[in-house]
Amino acid sequence: MVMRRHIKSRGTAPTRSVARKTFQRKLARSGSFGLNGIETPMNWGIPPWKIDFASKPQPLPAEVDFVVVGGGFSGLSAAAWLKEIAPGCSVVLLEATRVGAGASGRTGGLALAEAAEGELECLGDVLGGYRDTLNRLGAAGDIEFPGVFEIARSGGRVDSPIVWEDSGTLRVIKEVAGGGIDPGRILSDLALAATRRGVLVLEKARVENVAFESPLVVRSSVGTIRAKKVLLATNAQSVELSGLAEHSWARFTLAVQTEPLADAALSALGLSSGKGFYTSDLPYLWGRPMPNGAVMFGSGLVDIADDADLAALDISQGVAAGLFASLERRVRGLHPVLADVDFALRWGGPIRFGNAWQMFFDQHPCSKDVIVLNGLGGDGVSFSVYLGRWAAEVFAGQRSLPSWGKVPATA
Predict the structure, then answer these.
(1) What's the rounded Cα separation, in Å, for the pair 8 and 208?
(2) By C-alpha distance, which of 20, 19, 48 is closest to 349?
(3) How far apart are CA 380 and CA 316, in angstroms?
(4) Residue 194, phi then psi, degrees to nearest 5
(5) Please, what CATH class does the domain formed by 15-395 belong to?
(6) Given this model, what pLDDT does residue 120 score?
(7) Which one of 14, 44, 207, 352 has the lowest number of neighbouring Cβ atoms within 10 Å?
(8) Which pTM value belongs to this model?
(9) CA–CA dist 26, 43 (Å, integer)
(10) Is 371 helix (H, G, I), strand (E, B) or coil?
(11) Could you say which residues of the chain have pLDDT below 50?
(12) For the segment 144-158, what is each residue's pLDDT rounded down to a tens digit?
């Protein structure tokens, strides 16, 4: 999913403490093996991506150099890159359910070069770094980016290829660097790249806590392991582990995908170039054309009263169902070629923001040997891979953490 900072609602971000036992009970009630064997709540809908990876059961070692917590884009990138630049080190990745089962595998796959929170000092070339990381790891699928349209209801280009009606006339105001990727393929390739290099990837290995000792003690559902350094690359459902529950907030974001459209319809929509789009004003809308001729559209955030309720959320009921109905009406009203379109897929996924809309990329306040990487919001596609590599280079002593992304001292 993608979410640009300058159009977000500025309502008060919730502060809450997640009870781990409550969350686990709800997950046990609602979780199941969904699409492609990924353990995730089936009532979140089915995304279009296939994740072709399953770890092999192996014993947990007593002690390693590095433990990576989280099997999404950032965790897999960090683990694989650690073995790329320091092949002699030992690395274990612990994933609570299955690789890509959280936000990474349920994103819309729209990769952008700029952070939603604005320009970040010394960030560097995100898309270039993303491309180089995948190339060097042998996971080089979907790295050619045709660009993305930024569209708005005023100030659009006279020659705009997009002319849609949605609370005003939407037109292209500029093009930005980026494009669409296949998250399932990238996650699968990163997981395979990590295992080929000797990373021990363990799925269904939920981390319960980290004791800030020397070495660090990581307790999980598959046993206890000691580590010199730990990366907490967790998702919206695991912030209690990194101490961010009071400094960030979760939402559930939605997307739909149409049936495949004819070439003439894609041309009429201004999407024959293959470029994705997002609005720079409200009401928000983002999306992208797909390789099979379908078009993905996303909008809407479901408020979560308690982070544990994410697991029990059902997109066919309540607020989520209403938002899907509203989104589908909007899509059918954008252009005459969409008036009677059918929708082949509906799905959603968790998304997390810092209270000040910032991402977190910093040492844990309780230990300089623990890095927290969380709260990327809608920028997780390219940024997660890029920052995962950065985190690995910090652990290897090749790079410093950025000046931004600070974790509050009270975490």
Answers:
(1) 33
(2) 48
(3) 26
(4) -65, -45
(5) alpha beta
(6) 82
(7) 14
(8) 0.89
(9) 13
(10) strand
(11) 3-40
(12) 789 999 999 999 999
